[in-house]
Amino acid sequence: MAGLWRVSDAAVATASVCRTTPWVRRLTALVAGVVWLAAVLAAALPYEPIFHPRPPRGWVGGPAAAYRDAATQKVHLYMLYNPSATTNVSAAWYHVTSSDYAYWTREDPPTAISADRWYDTDGVLSGVMMNNGQNTPVALYTCEDSGAMQRQCLANPTSADVAGRRLFNTLVKSPVNPVIGADSVPQLVSRGAPHDPTEWWTNPAASGQWLIAFAARQSTSSGLRSSVVVFATSDTSLQGGYTFSHSLYDDTSGGGGGGVRLTAQTLERPDFFTLTGAGATSGAGERFLKLSVAEWRRDLVVYGAYAAAASNAGQYIFTADTARRATVVDYGCLYGGKTFYDPIQRRRRMWGWIQEDLAPSSVGANGWAGMQTIRDVVYDTTENKLRFPPIREMQALRASRVAWSTGLTVTSAAATTVLTGSSSLAKYQEVIATFYIPPGVFDGSKYFAANPPEFGMRVRASADASRYVTVAVRMPIANATPTRGYRQPGTVLQEVAVSDDVDAAGSCATQCLQAVPLCEAWNLRLNASGSYCSFLSTPAPLEVDCTAQTSLPNVPLLLVERAASSSIGSLTSVGGRAPLTVAHPSYVKLHLFIDDSAIEVYKDDGTEVVSSRVYLPGGDSLTGVSLYTRNMDAITADVTVFTMSSMWAAAAANNAATRANSASVL
């Protein structure tokens, strides 16, 4: 569900810092830094995760770039970083490395690029790092000057480092920076300069030419347009020679599915990729365009084809498949994801930024903000969509199996306790539960005007079960026909006109279900100009409106509910539509990773994902797990719970030494 106070207050408040004048930004950062410095004098940081990459202190935003070195087999992750405060000011690229995706090392020096040139004094922003045509790594990043003007800049590892240890912990800026100017795309609007580069790829229409794409904002005869624009270079070293080529995609091209456009939303952080090797697609030539939609604070993947434009055979464009609904990467607080290709494993993976869900003043007191998560990218030929499952390397962080059971009976009478909350248990857990459900209840064939059925689990629970976080799969309260004379208030995702010569209500229902990725309800309203469908992400109690009718898709919802958690952050539910899978409609698998204040929920191996945040005072004893149902007959379930250890290599070595010493004593 979009429209949470986290989005409107916390996320937008930090985003507004980037849109004020430069001197206000610097003053804001300075004041925040004073508050932050006082907070971090404490020895321990509150609500701190142990298996999500992040600096020990300061703010991190989205992934800046990721690179797997085939020579050393090391994974290099660079993330946006403010070392001085917990506010959204990207002053550097923070650098961590791993050889196995399980255990990570914070590099020294910790920052590979810092904001120290006229062209990037106000931002070393997102970028890309990959090998050029000479098999040498190159980084390109969006650089922002003190006037908030964005350009594109290059940074390279030194020749000695490439030939030697290949640490890539210091990237040297090109003397010809910036290599792409702010005025290099026709019809740009203010602050609409190209930003957030994709990976490079070779031009299928011109041998020896490389292409790279960026998000941009343009003004056309049809109004404002958010675009993904392409630049070309014939320099195989990728060090220069960039010229504007054409638009790869714009928000008039559809992409929500069913031909619904993204309604001039602000598009960020595009990724343009195909899948080969592990996780490959079923369709030859199929391409994926990942977009971060700023107004929705959600990442989407649009499906389509990459082929020569009808008007120009020398320009290849992305054409969205209007018959398919875009996939939501995460219904929760993940944003700004970035994929990369691992040449060792021959698979594509996605890094994403898990944001805070806490008032800015409390974030500053904590002394740190933000973290990264990593997921696989897999095309599911049965479900006909991408999945984003957890990476298998997370199994290496399992410390011990503390609960497991098969064939548990779960009833509506009382929750079935799996673990009782206790400070003797770690608050870092992996929970895997499979629920076997009866037919005809969650498949949309029945409507529930009240008391909808649901099942799920309660985690981070107290010993007396009075405090907990609920992870639920629930049918909505819905009717088979639209409710006339009422409308649903809530967050409007977009609004489209409906022709008077069609079944207007049926059109709204179809578009909500099949076209608009985050739609959980719709209103049909009449005014002097005609009929309009409004699509909402946050349904609310009905309000009287004699000109309207309303309804919502009869599809199960995957929800993380925090109302009973006593979190000091947002208590609003977060989630989205999560139908039963085609492959196994008789059961649902919920796979959770609980890392103190971070909770990630993967339904059916990443077919749908929800990430959430909870900040629990006295949380050391809030470690209980239980299963429950409501408004339905008894079901059975299998469940396993592991405690998790730290991902940081130094901590892992200490843990191993402790275990060895304990064994020698025994």
UniProtKB/TrEMBL annotation:
Protein name, per record: Glycosyl hydrolases family 32 N-terminal domain containing protein
By its UniProt entry, which PANTHER family does this protein fall under?
BETA-FRUCTOFURANOSIDASE, INSOLUBLE ISOENZYME CWINV1-RELATED
* Glycosyl hydrolase family 32 N-terminal domain residues: 52-387
Q: Which residues cross the membrane?
A: 27-47
- Organism, scientific name: Novymonas esmeraldas
> Which keywords, in A-to-Z order, does the entry hold?
Glycosidase, Hydrolase, Membrane, Transmembrane, Transmembrane helix
**Entries under Pfam families matching the protein:** Glyco_hydro_32C, Glyco_hydro_32N
Q: Does the keyword Cell membrane apply?
A: no
Superkingdom, according to UniProt?
Answer: Eukaryota
Tell me the protein family, please: Belongs to the glycosyl hydrolase 32 family.
User: Its Gene Ontology molecular function terms?
Assistant: hydrolase activity, hydrolyzing O-glycosyl compounds
| GO terms, biological process | carbohydrate metabolic process
Where the record annotates domain Glycosyl hydrolase family 32 C-terminal, the positions are 427-640
